[in-house]
Design a protein that fits this description.
CATH class of the largest domain: Alpha Beta
CATH architecture of the largest domain: 3-Layer(aba) Sandwich
Largest sheet: 7 strands, mixed
Number of domains: 2
Structural class: alpha/beta
Bound molecules: nicotinamide-adenine-dinucleotide
Number of strands: 22
Shape: globular
CATH superfamily of the largest domain: Aldehyde Dehydrogenase, Chain A, domain 1
Helix content: 25-40%
Length: 484
């Protein structure tokens, strides 16, 4: 077990106080709020609670900074982003430990990769460009399509991947010439406050500001007259509030929201060999994963053997504090989510559904620990199949007919991701093509990249992040028509 107190003593990034970052300065607040360590249920730190005036100051500074930042060339902004990535890398270990402390995820297998991937994304995105296109040219005129930055972008982020999901927004927004104000989730503000603090030593004042506080800051941002776009990641319910509130100022929106992803294991699948991928696809980050497998459909032919092997693999995992190097499954991030996941367990039990692993919460244990729970073949209309559990419970659901399972997978208001697993790749791809989702993986899980669009269909999202398509959404198309 890592000795946190010894580690904190030698690191400046853990210890409070934490500050807002506004106009290039670290700013104190009168009010603070508690941030919990989900592995202990104890207060980890106090985070600054920004006032409406401080949010306004951050937006005003971003608006001023936009004038000079947007006038820089791509090459100049690339240099700033690379310098920022280097500065983050210098604090990589501390950021990762802080991420585990506030979020709960295992340090080596989840937190460090999240920080590393974020830094790598900044570097890779820094090299991307959106050139001016000539869309028409003839003897009399030429038509150019430019992509101009929007202005101040407001980023609103969730608590499941607080570092990655915020920096996914920062890199393309800044590269394309926008400035940004981030509001992290009140459950996990600390890593964001720290990477914001690091930004102030590298980026021009006002280019990237951080305001933490309660949920009430969200609506203030979505209605703010000087914010041009909201890039939001969170639940579908909150996303609907964002849409309504943003209408008043006709903001651009990118919304990454909830999902209920199905994995379909085909009748011909080499299912034994993919159990680890399926397990981690569902239970990675304790199931708090927007594109996590939330419904695992398997064919009746290998039902019993599959469930036994899946449970066997699950039994090898260790639940506990993410700082313990032997732990592979951490706690649920917060009490609210812990209670929500317990409601799923209560519903499963009340309906007499078959729990083949887990299901019992140790009430005497401090922290928000839910054991990995496997439910064998719950009915299609049950809560655990129909709703997003966002916790370490996986329903394994039996199907007989491929057409039927495709219909069941699509019968959802969500359309975020999905996966199909089979020996015959062409047959698996044919099924993948029928899924009504923004992303489908075939015989692999959760592959991502800076040039791969990431986004949901139906009520899972509007627009995409990642990819050229995602970068375009930080710009306005501007058509310039020139008579020769
Ligand atoms: P949430 O919707 O409760 O909160 C997200 C953010 O919105 C937080 O910063 C919160 O403070 C803020 N917020 C709350 N009320 C607001 C309002 N009225 N206006 C504006 N902002 C407001 O979501 P969460 O519980 O933090 O995250 C879990 C959800 O996020 C899950 O549904 C998950 O599927 C989804 N998610 C989606 C993706 C994706 O890429 N599609 C990625 C991660 C998480």
């Amino acid at each position: 077990m890592l000795n946190v107190s010894a580690k904190t003593a030698s690191n400046t990034l853990f210890d409070g106080p934490y500050y807002l970052s506004i106009a290039g300065k670290l700013v104190e607040t009168q009010a603070t709020f508690e941030v919990m360590n989900p592995a202990t249920g104890q207060v980890l730190a106090h985070a600054p609670a920004a006032t409406t005036e401080q949010l306004d100051e951050a937006v005003a500074a971003a608006k001023v900074a936009f004038k000079t930042w947007s006038a820089l060339s791509y090459d100049e902004r690339e240099q700033y982003l690379l310098a920022y990535a280097d500065a983050l890398e210098a604090h990589r270990d501390e950021l990762a430990v802080l991420l585990t402390l506030e979020q709960g995820k295992p340090l080596k297998t989840m937190a460090e990769p999240e920080v590393d991937q974020s830094i790598s994304w900044i570097r890779q995105i820094a090299a991307r460009r959106i050139p001016v296109e000539i869309v028409e040219e003839n003897d009399s005129h030429i038509v150019e399509l430019h992509h101009t930055p929007l202005g101040v972008v407001g980023a609103i982020t969730p608590w499941n991947f607080p570092v990655l999901l915020a920096l996914w927004k920062v890199a393309p927004a800044l590269l394309t010439g926008n400035t940004m104000v981030i509001k992290p989730s009140p459950f996990t503000p600390l890593t964001t406050l720290r990477f914001g603090q690091i930004a102030q030593s590298v980026l021009p004042a006002g280019v990237l500001s951080i305001v933490s506080g309660g949920n009430e800051l969200g609506p203030q941002m979505t209605a703010h007259p000087d914010i041009a776009k909201i890039s939001f990641t969170g639940s579908t319910e909150t996303g609907k509030h964002v849409i309504r509130s943003a209408a008043g100022t006709v903001k651009r929106l990118t919304l990454e929201m909830g999902g209920n992803d199905a994995a379909i294991v085909m009748p011909d699948a080499d299912w034994k060999s993919v159990i680890p991928q399926l397990f981690w696809g569902a239970i990675g980050n304790s199931g708090q994963w927007c594109v996590g497998i939330k419904r695992l459909y398997i064919h009746r032919a290998y039902h019993q053997a599959f469930v036994s092997a899946f449970v066997e693999y699950a039994r090898q995992q260790k639940l506990g504090d993410g700082l313990d190097p032997e732990v592979t499954v951490g706690p649920v991030q917060n009490k609210m989510q812990f209670d929500k996941v317990r409601e799923f367990l209560d519903d499963i039990k009340a309906r007499g559904q078959k729990i083949v692993l887990g299901g019992e919460v140790d009430e005497s244990r401090p922290g928000y620990f839910i054991p990995v729970t496997v439910v064998d073949n719950p009915p299609e209309n049950s809560k655990i199949v129909q709703q997003e559990q966002f916790g370490p419970i996986v329903p394994i659901i039996v199907y007989d007919d491929v057409d039927d399972v495709v219909a069941r997978a699509n019968d959802s208001p969500f359309g975020l991701g999905g996966s199909v697993w089979g020996r015959d790749t062409r047959a698996a791809v044919a099924v993948a093509n029928r899924l009504e989702t923004g992303m489908v993986w075939v015989n692999e899980m959760h592959t991502q990249g800076v040039d791969i669009p990431f986004g949901g269909h139906k009520q899972s999202g509007v627009g995409t992040e990642g990819g050229h398509e995602g970068r375009l959404l930080f710009t306005n198309p501007k058509t310039v028509l020139i008579k020769k």
